[in-house]
Amino acid sequence: MSELNKIALKILSNGKGILAADESTGTMTKRLESVNVPSSPENRLLFRKTLFSSESMKNCIGGVILYDETIKQTTNSKQTIPELISFSDGLPGIKVDTGAKVLAGSPEEKITEGLDGLRERLKEYYKLGARFTKWRGVYNISNDYPSKLSIYANAHALARYSAIVQECKMVPIVEPEVLMDGNHSAEVCLNKTSAVLEKCFEELILHNIDLSGIILKPNMILAGANSDKKISGEEVAKLTLKCLKQNVPSDVPGIAFLSGGQTEIEATENLNLINKNNDTNFIMTYSYGRALQKSALKFWSKDTKDIKGTQTIFNHRANMCTLAAQGKWSIDLESK
Q1: Pairing of strands 171-178, 17-20
Q2: Are 166 and 187 in contact (CB under 8 A)?
Q3: Which residue among 33, 178, 327, 329 has the highest number of C-beta atoms inside a 10 angstrom radius?
Q4: Cβ proximity of 85 and 91 under 8 Å
Q5: Residue 14 burial (10 A CB sphere; 0-12, 13-18, 19+)
Q6: What is 3-335's CATH number?
Q7: Which residues are catalytic?
Q8: Domain map (residue ranges) of the chain
């Protein structure tokens, strides 16, 4: 077992998942302003510290993806954010891409940037305590998209990123997100996601990536947000498993789904059904941002000093997701 594989398994095993707290300052500002909380470094730190010191961090959260600002922050008790996460036996991670920009040659699509200077940044992040990283590629769905250019360019960038990350002794999260915006059917989502994953792994293998030392963060197979052809949770699970079995090499230790526009309950229920029907050797868990934090943020915004109350809301959501990662969740548990 390689060191990278050990890190990946520590993050994903025993029903644990990943808290995606890597919102950029701009995104976090939008989130806070949407609940009428001023976005200052202090408020951003306070909300994250409230979550990172919750009881559920010990049993539910194997890793936390941070943003550049957050990994460098220190709490009022002189503890760094990576130390706070490590205290609960979680691993700190870091978002290392610099965002999705217009793809030259196909202006309706995006290419993720951030390879320049990545090696040097990774060395600094490693010293700060990071042991895994995240890079997100995004793909539109329509009749014409994602184009071959978008599929190839983003796969190449994800592979180059992964190679540099593994060289720096960290586990890369590979996140090719096929967006759910649009009115496409689940069948179309399946075909397009399959094409994206197939090319991603072709490039990862070409770049000599240790596949046992990565975590895949894909979308589930869903009908588009504006589609009138919505499918049941059972169908979501069936199509998602079909897609992963056909396109993900068995060396990959685990898959941590993004919530991608689903509600907290939808993301939990669909993960639970995937695990109930999981006939693969992949660990299937979660890497959720909004689907873990939304209710907690709403509660916290009413009284930012009510740490315990906010943590109670977050603990419940994290516990529900961890039960779903083991196929043990039910809707009845939501009201208990």
Answers
A1: unpaired
A2: no
A3: 178
A4: yes
A5: middle
A6: 3.20.20.70
A7: 217
A8: 3-335
